[in-house]
Structures are given as C-alpha cells and as structure tokens.
Amino acid sequence: MAPRSSSKVNPIRSWRCYSSGPATLGPGTFVDFEHSINTAVKRLREILGDSADSPHFIETLPRRGYRFIYPVNGAQAVAPVRPPVRWWLARWVVALLGISVVLGILLAANFGSLRRRLLPASVSPRIESLAVLPVVNLTGDPAQEYFADGITEELIIEFSRVRAFKRVIPRTSAMAYKGAKKPLSEIARELGVDAVVEASLLQTQWQVRITVRLINGTTEQSLWADRYERSLSEVPTLCTRVVGAVAKQLALTLTPAEKTWLASVRPVNPEAYLRGRALDANFDNPEKLRIARTQFERALQADSEYPLALAGLAGVEARYCRNVELSEACLQRAEALAVHALARDPNLALAHVALGHIYGTRSRLRACRKRTAQGRRTRSQ
Prior knowledge:
Radius of gyration: 42 Å
CATH class of the largest domain: Alpha Beta
Distance between the termini: 115 Å
Number of helices: 15
CATH topology of the largest domain: Rossmann fold
C-alpha cells in the first residue's frame, strides 16, 4: 500500500505555486490563475485589514506577482498589524464629510438667510452709530407733518445724548431720506451707520400711536421693535423711553447721569414743543424763528426747567439775534437761556451749539470754536 500523503500543505510552497503564473494540468488543458489569484489576494487583504499602498501581509511586486511579507518564524513584525477596516464606517465618514462641505458652502453664501436660521444671534450686535429716519405720518393730514418732523428731531437729540452711540446722523442728513424708497441696507451704507431707526405716527384727537423699529444696517434684521399708545402730553417723554428701551436691548453701558435722565419724566406741552422743534430747522427764516420762539415759550409754561425746551429756545434766540435783532440785550437773553439749560444738563449739545452761535456773533471766534467743538463732541459721545 502506498503511503498516505499528508493533508498538511506548506502555505509558502502553495503561495509560490499560485504566484508562478499559468499552470498546465494535463495535455491540452491550460488554466490561467491570474484573475483568480487577484480576487483571492483582494479578499485576503479585506480579511486581514491590509492595504496595497502600505502592506503588512501581502506585497505587490510590479510585473511579477505577490509576496507574503509577514514573518512566519515567530519574529516580531516590523510594523504593527492594523485592525480590519470597517467598510460601513468608512462610508458614513465620507457621507458626513460631504454633508459638512455642502452645509459650509450654504452657510458661507448665506443662502436663504441660512445663517440667521441655523445660527441665531445669542448676543446683540455691536451698534455704535445709527440714523433716525424721518418719522412717517400715517394720519393722512399734511397739517400734522410738523408733528412727525418734531418727533424725528426729538429722537435724534435723545439718541445723541447717549455716549455709547459714537455717531448719530444729524437731522439735515436724515431728512434727505424722507419718502425715500431705497432699501434700508442701502441707506445705512450711504450714511455709514450700523443701524437705522424707523418710526411711524398715527394720531387721533387725544391719543397718538408711534411704532418704532431698530434695524441692523447690514442684514436688515429687526433688532428691536415696539408700539406705544400715549396721550399727547406724553409724546416728548416717549422719545426718552424709546432710547431707554433701545439701550436696554443693546445692553449699552450707561453713565449714572444717563440712567437718571432716562428714568426722568417731565410734564411738557407736546404740541408747542414739537412745533418749536420742527420750526427750529428753518435756521435763518425770521418769521419761522419768531413762531418757533413762541412755541418753545409755550412749552416752558408747563415746566420752566425742561432742559431741551430751554436749549431749543436758546438756539432760536441766538439765530434770531444774529439775523434779525443784532443787539447785546438779545444776545444776553439767549446766553442766559443756554447757561440755564447747561446747568440742568451739562451734556446738552444744543445748548453748547447755541453758545457757539452767540460767541460767533460777538466775534469771539476762539470761544465760538471751543463751544461749537464741545457741542459736536457731546453729540458724538
């Protein structure tokens, strides 16, 4: 009996056999192992977690075949064996990377305001400059335009008193946009401000409704909005309340004096005060100046210590003296009003500017420049 052949096969010899190329099994029978061995090697690499680029077990020899490089004599491998690659995990990683790239592109382009929807602002944006656009008169009565213009002027003055707002656009520049149909972002860009304040007015016989919004000048996002329904006597103090609400929304740092001012409420004749404020814009018209002076005097009858009314009357008197009644008595009257207003509120820009006009009329140019500059600094603080 022929000896039984051993069932054990030497893997190295078998590997050499399979990697030696085509084999002939018998006469007329030819078998090509190339495709089969490639498939087998690929499968082996998958099981072993091996790679053709950085092999640990099976190395590809160009134009020759494959070589088993892992030590079989018990010696330690030069490189550690990597665990098998989890193909399903690799696919998820690729998918997540793809989603991240697409989402990043959409966020960068802010497609459909995606940034605002997915990344809502948790902190109020930094607003250091703003413009108060002309208040829109919704009453339909042209005779009430003075009321809307007066509120516009009052809001500008009140916002200018807050030092955290380093720049507030003056009335002459803001009024140029009355009735403008431009986008708010375009107006903000032209004026060079961070935000704009827009408001509308609806007045009845005894009540007034004012709607105010603070708009981001870049994104046109509403940062704050509110609606106020008050009696006519509360309108001037309402502007102070609006400034206080905006300061609170933006988390502005206020000085103790500003906190006291924003908390104060003064009785005032709203119609007379706002008429005087609207007419005050007609700088050199003698008739308008006379009417404005009368209106401010009426407003002071309700509160003779109201700083804004004192400063408004001082400014009107100063221009009236320069253009109509050039006398020392007129200048002294205007100066006394301005000094009185500054005694009530040292940071009142209108009073500083009024003193500048008075000193200029007296040809005290150095004092004029000093007071005018002080008024500008106070308004820009």
